[in-house]
Amino acid sequence: MSEKLVDTLVNMKEQEALEIAKELIESGEDPLEILGSCSKAMEVVGKRFETGEYFLPQLVMAGEMLRQVSEMLKPKLKGAVQSERLGKVVIGTVKGDLHDIGKDIVVFMLDVNGFDVMDLGIDVPPDKFVDVIKEFQPEVVGLSGFLTLAFDSMKETVDAIRGANLRDKVKIMIGGGQIDDEIRRYTEADAYGLNAMDAVTLSRGWIGGS
Helix or strand or coil: residue 171? Predict the structure, then answer.
C-alpha cells in the first residue's frame, strides 16, 4: 500500500495524488495494490464525513479523484481479466444514505472482472430496486450503505424484493460501513462483503464464473 497516495487522497491534494498514481502505474505497481490504497483513503474520508470533520464538498472531491484514478487503472486491470460478460449485477446505495465512494469501487471492480453492472446511484428506495430487478433481471443485487441508518433500509429493500416474489430469483449481498454477519442476518441478505474483491468473489460464486 502506498501511504503517500493514501495521504494525498485523504487530504484532498488532487493533482499530487493523480501524479503519484500515474507514477505507481508506470513503475509497474500492482493495480490492485493501488486500488487498495484508494479504498483505504476513501474509508478515512468516509469516517471524517461521519464525524463532521469533512462535508459534502470533500466527499464529492474524493469521489472525483477516485474516478480519475480508476480510469487510469482500468486498462491495466482489464488486460488481466476476461472480457466476456459473466452475468448481471444491480447495485445501489440504499434509501437515506448518500455515500457512493465505496459503491463506486465495487462497481469498478465488478466491471473490470467481467460483470454487466447497473449502478442505481445513491438514496435508492426499495421500489426502485424491485422495478429494476424486474426489467434488468440480474442474478445478483448489491445493497450499499455507510451509515447505520442504512441497515433498516437494507432490510426494507430485501423485504420489498421478497414481497414482489423476486427473492428466489436473486442473490443479495450487502456492504459498507460497519457491516458484519449480525447485520447480514438482520437484513436477511445472503452474504456481506468487507471490500470490493469480496463482491467480485461472491458474484462469481453465485453466477458460476471461475
Answer: strand
